[in-house]
Amino acid sequence: MGVRSLSAESKKPNHLGILAFETAKTMSRLISLYRSLSDEEISKLRKDVMKSEGVAYLNSKDEAFLLSLACAEKLEDLDKAATTVARLGNKCTDVSLNKFNHVYTDFKLGIIDLGKLEYGSKKIDKKVEKMERLILTTSSLYESLEALAELEASERKLMQWKKNCRAIQLEKMNFDLFYQKIANQRKQVRNFRGTSLWSQTFDKSVGLMARLREMTQVQPEFFHTEQLKEQVCSRSGPVTSTSSKPILVRFYSRKSIMFLSEANDYRAEGFEKNNRVFHAAGPSTVGGSGLALRYANVILVAESFMHSAVTIGHDARESLYEMLPQNLKKAIRSKLSKCGKIVDDDESLADGWREALSAIMGWLTPMAHHTVQWQTERNVEKMKFDSKPSELLLQTLHFSDKEKTEAAIVEVLVGLSCLYRYENRRSYDSRRW
């Protein structure tokens, strides 16, 4: 009796529990990829993003090249999501989900056909809606747990404070409202646990993601990328199904062709090491020189200076100057020595600088914003559940020509300096009168 009970217990499907949050992040990433393949998003990519002035001037005008970058990055994101799905699949009772990495490999190689996959079908849209509801409640659970942790920390401090207080002091205090707030917060956490991914089984959650992953395979008519090659070896394995009739799926590939070089390397440094698109930027690019985020921050500070309603102080300008590498400092000093004195008393030249700055920043600033946003979206340390289509590296400064980018930054900073000197001189003259 005891053996039978133990056996029955071991066959009960496990629930995600604390892994709900990682699962929600992966679901969000898959939905983001899925939506990025819509006709609207592809049209936006080709007509707006790739033809924007900054991308065309700093990165490339070659549509085929830019499309190949977009395709490769999306495939990498898909591989990373599939890696997590495969790891979660190892905890499933469904054998087909246990072997998800082999199915994924065969599907990428075009060896097996898992059925007619219609992008945007009602059936898939319903699954996406279900996943979005689960993501929303899981996000709410995460926020509720954080709020509860803060309240419980306050409760511990309160208990410590009570120990050091006299009884007569405690009689005058009413803690009912505080304890009621904690009780309500714990009840909210229990409710969200029941409706979120926390209480979902591995089989149901992984099954949803596996199906959406099939629908997210990048479409060849939109993108062109190098075909991956792998030696194929026949292998068979049983797969359980919800249908009454048993089925058999053949796993042809001996190992996965996910971009991760090690099957169990799911850490942040593992992803960074295997990010081929990120490391494809050559030494003549901003990203290849390791300066993308640094230059993006310089540009964004310059933008804040342009739109500041108050005079920028010396310390703020010095801080911006210290953000620059030595070659840019030297270039700025050289250019300022040639043109700075002319602008001091010439209003027409000052107006010309304003127009030039406005024009340059019009296409340079969006590149900086996209660079920071790309970094934020891929910060694996943060818990994010956003399923909107994400930024692409081709929109950022990562693949930008280093020489052109630095020339633009020098122009902007020299222009700001000249305008500052002109405005400062004019303000001084007005005070004299």
Automatic annotation (TrEMBL):
Residues 18-74 form the DUF3475 domain. Keywords: Coiled coil. Residues 285-372 form the DUF668 domain. It holds the Pfam family DUF3475. InterPro entries: DUF3475 (IPR021864), DUF668 (IPR007700). The keyword Transmembrane helix does not apply. Residues 144-171 form a coiled coil. This is Avr9/Cf-9 rapidly elicited protein 137. It comes from Ilex paraguariensis (yerba mate). The lineage of its organism: Eukaryota, Viridiplantae, Streptophyta, Embryophyta, Tracheophyta.
